[in-house]
Amino acid sequence: LLDDGARHQVGLIDWGGERMRGRARLDLSGSACSRITNWQGMQDFLFGAWDCTITRVDLAVDCLQGEFTVDDARNWLHEGLFTAGTGAPPRHSTPGDWLSETPYYGRTLEIGRRENGKMLRAYEKGLQLLPGSGDKWTRFEVELRRKDRDIPLDVLTRCDEYFVGAYECLQQLLPVAGERIKTHQKEGELTVERMVSHCREA
Hints:
Layout: E1 2-3, E2 6-7, E3 11-15, E4 24-28, H1 30-34, H2 39-49, E5 56-63, H3 70-78, E6 92-93, E7 108-113, E8 118-123, H4 125-129, E9 138-145, H5 159-166, H6 184-201
Antiparallel strand pairs: 1-2, 3-4, 5-9, 6-7, 7-8, 8-9
């Protein structure tokens, strides 16, 4: 892609051939996504022409003036707002300048594990791009993977709802009703619970 006279990679497409049963992969970067002005048209084109499966999607909200920060995400974690209904606290990690009185390169709070198919990153994007600048730009990014869940096709056009649906506390960033993506594992657990309940009654 030519942009201001420079060439930038904004996407990748590869084909697996016979080994991958004729399947191909399309990988679009955030830069590519920012150039798409008609996501409904993109959704209709992709899923009307081919049998497509979404294996990963990143949904992000930018707080350019620091309206919400990594400190807010940390507070929500301490308040138990990132639990998945099990009561157990989620795994989390804190890469970056957490031990510095004044962050220089920026801090990141990661909640969840990508191996489980859902993870939130709250990070100081402004400091990542311009270390030491004091820029308040903070990005909240939900990464969803096709792990024990089917990512719905309309995630391309209803990204706000699925962003908020990942963690209820994210509704503070976007005042929309969240749409939760159910996991197969949870559905299986509910089925087993139902069977045990029926056996007890019998």
